Amino acid sequence: MGDQLPASTQVDVYYAEKDVAKKYKVIGHIYTSTAVNANKVKEAILTKAKAVGADGVIILGIKTTGGGNEVETVQQADAIKYTKE
């Protein structure tokens, strides 16, 4: 959900807003849910971020719910675009 820009080929990954040294604006929020490991979730977020033209993503958190054979990992990230302002 958010702005759609030309696709990106490279997306920077951050784990806290304070780590982004460049000025930026949030162009969308990405939510990914999968029953596999966190690395696959991160990969899905990066794929979505590239598709919407993001320069980077700020990973906001990972949450695992369920148990046994019914574990679901949900990860949220903000897609960001660097600005010149």
Describe this structure in words.
By secondary structure, the chain is an alpha+beta fold. Helices cover 16% and strands 46% of the residues. Strand 3 and strand 4 form a beta hairpin. The protein is elongated and about 50 Å long.
Helical percentage: 10-25%
Which structural class is indicated by helix and strand composition?
A: alpha+beta
> Which architecture does the CATH hierarchy give at level 2?
2-Layer Sandwich
Oligomer: single chain
Q: How many helices in DSSP terms? A: 1
Tell me the fraction of residues in β-strands, as a range: over 45%
Largest sheet: spatial strand order: 1-3-4-2
Overall shape: elongated
In CATH, what is the class?
Alpha Beta
CATH superfamily: Hypothetical protein apc22750. Chain B
- Stretches where pLDDT is under 50 for at least 5 consecutive residues are none
The chain-level mean pLDDT equals 86
| Tally of domains | 1
* Element-by-element helix/strand order: EEHEE
Alpha carbon gap, first and last residue: 24 Å
Q: Tell me how many strands there are.
A: 4
The largest sheet is:
4 strands, mixed
Computed over alpha carbons, the radius of gyration is 13 Å
Organism: Mucilaginibacter conchicola
Protein name: DUF1471 domain-containing protein
